[in-house]
Design goal:
Blueprint lengths: L3 E4 L3 E4 H7 L10 H10 L7 E6 L5 H13 L4 E6 L5 H16 L3
Length: about 110
C-alpha cells in the first residue's frame, strides 16, 4: 500500500487522507504504481494501455513518470501528448484517438 500520494509536488497526502477524501472509493491498495509492480512480479499481463496528456496539463509530469514506470516493468502502453490542458476538449480528442487505435487492433 502507498504511504503518501504526491500530486505534482504541490500536495502530499497520507494514505488515510486519500481514503478519507475519496470516502473509501479509492483505497490505498489501488495505487497504480503498486498495481504495475504486482503485475510484473506475478508475471501477469494486461491489455495495452493508451495514455494521453496535454502539454499544459498540471498532471503531465505525473503521466510521464507513470509511463516510465510502465516501461521499466515491461507493460505495453502508448503515451501521446499534444497541446492541451486538463479539459473536455482535450479528452474528446483523446477518446477519438483511443477508438481509432484500439479498432485498428481488432
Amino acid at each position: 500500500p502507498i504511504e503518501t500520494a504526491n500530486f505534482d509536488g504541490r500536495v502530499t497526502l497520507t494514505a488515510d487522507e486519500v481514503y478519507a477524501i475519496n470516502q473509501g472509493r479509492i483505497k490505498p491498495h489501488d495505487d497504480l504504481f503498486d498495481l504495475v509492480k504486482e503485475l510484473h512480479k506475478n508475471q501477469k499481463t494486461c491489455p495495452q494501455l493508451y495514455i494521453t496528456c496535454g502539454r499544459s496539463d498540471i498532471l503531465l509530469q505525473d503521466n510521464i513518470r507513470f509511463c516510465d514506470h510502465l516501461q521499466k516493468h515491461g507493460i505495453a502502453h502508448k503515451f501521446e501528448q499534444w497541446e492541451g490542458n486538463h479539459e473536455w476538449s482535450f479528452w474528446d480528442e483523446s477518446v477519438r484517438r483511443a477508438v481509432k487505435l484500439f479498432s485498428s487492433m481488432l
